[in-house]
Write a structure and sequence with these properties.
Blueprint (H helix, E strand, L loop, with lengths): L1 H28 L2 H8 L4 H7 L2 H19 L12 H17 L12 H8 L5 H24 L5 H20 L1 H8 L6 H27 L17
Helix pairs in contact: 1-2, 1-3, 1-4, 1-6, 5-7, 5-8, 5-10, 7-8, 8-10
Length: 233
């Protein structure tokens, strides 16, 4: 029993240290020696508990993202039969919570950089992350957007609106240091995420509605010609 407890404690220390090191240095640059030094464990411990750096990284990323999705689910408890506007706000708020709430990725400064690093410099596990976490989330948003756009929407119409919605959420997370300095927004304020979710939802609804009108009436988005100047030069 003591050995099991000790093993669990060592594994937890390694996972915590690895998340920080991988987040700061990236998968390629991070070394087993640096992780073990940070965790204050023997170098052989990683191979013993995880089978090597590759599986350790997979475990760190999977546990980190799984935890945030468990804390902040895609639907936020909203009934799937609710109107698409309500479901869109729930999706946006859940995404923001996972990205910038203290209990989400931003609550772990080192680990939180893992997602950013995966986007900028993908590891061999990006496909696994997409299949396990991102694709299911994208399918939920895609269904909401498709319902709003109507039956005439093409795959490209849906995809563009979908990326526009999620892009706003990611911008606040990825550009947080700049946004904070430019606007003095307090990302730790309890009401900040709710207000931001309302804004992104309103903004997105307006954009999706404009896209819907352009689908039903392609000429509606034509750029108006310059006003007639009466022939004067």
């Amino acid at each position: 029993m003591a050995n099991h407890t000790e093993d669990t404690s060592v594994k937890a220390k390694i996972l915590d240290a690895a998340g920080d090191v991988f987040g700061r240095m990236g998968y390629k640059a991070a070394t087993i020696r640096e992780i073990c030094k940070t965790a204050d464990v023997n170098v052989a411990a990683i191979n013993y508990h995880f089978g090597g750096k590759k599986e350790l990284y997979r475990k760190v990323v999977t546990e980190l993202i799984s935890r945030t999705f468990n804390l902040y689910p895609l639907d936020e408890g909203i009934d799937g039969r609710s109107d698409p506007e309500t479901r869109l706000r729930a999706f946006v708020r859940g995404t923001l919570m996972r990205l910038i709430a203290p209990g989400g990725l931003s609550g772990y400064p080192g680990k939180g950089q893992l997602v950013a690093r995966e986007l900028a410099d993908p590891s061999v596990f990006l496909n696994d992350m997409v299949d396990e976490f991102i694709r299911p989330a994208a399918a939920v948003l895609s269904g909401i957007v498709a319902e709003m756009l109507g039956p005439g929407a093409t795959f490209q119409d849906i995809m563009r609106c979908q990326i526009s919605v999620i892009g706003q959420c990611f911008h606040y997370a990825m550009a947080r240091p700049i946004v904070s300095r430019l606007t003095a927004m307090d990302f730790s304020d309890a009401g900040f995420i709710d207000g931001l979710a309302d804004h992104i939802t309103r903004f997105s609804l307006a954009g999706i509605e404009a896209a819907r009108r352009s689908i039903s009436d392609p000429d509606a988005m034509d750029v108006p010609s310059s006003p007639d100047n009466g022939g004067e030069e």
